[in-house]
Amino acid sequence: MTFSTRELATLAVFGALWGLVEITLGAVIKTLNIPLGALLVVSVGLVVALVGRAFVPRRGSTLFIGVIAMLLKLFSLGGVVVGPMVGILFEALIAEIVLSAMGRPRRASFVAAGAAASAWLLVHPFLTGLLFFGRSLFVVWQDLLDLGNRVVGLDPSAAAWIVAALAAIYAGVGAVVGWLSWDLAHTLKKRTGR
Q1: Do the Cβ atoms of 174 and 43 come closer than 8 Å?
Q2: Which of 71, 138, 139, 143 has the fewest CB neighbours in a 10 Å radius?
């Protein structure tokens, strides 16, 4: 994949915007300890990445935006940033795979990419918790059930229902993000004459 200088500049701007969202909004959400706060940060980041893909509709552009955002996350103040960096990279990679597999950009591909990348949030703690933070799968699983209890109000013994409900919430929010990103991208492209 070879990008023109203009395309690289455009991708750098969108990558920097996503990185800025992760650094600022991510820090605020983490400090406030909001349930599903990560979903909010991912949603805003995906809007930026998907709009960037509309401006540079070529294979690899979403991943490129994500890599820039991931590298900027290194400059976050405070705690460990490895987990969020891995999250950003995988969100961009998943969105890139879906967008590339579905061919030319269209609303359906944006909706599917948003849903798939957001659903990654359910898997993310299992990967990073185990590989980077030495947490056992049992502890990560308990955290997921506790989240389901707080958000959906289901008893932790209803594990299958909790996972299904959280998956539906995450994918549903991601699908809405994809839908809105498509509209936002076309509005911005009209205003900028692109």
Answers
A1: yes
A2: 138
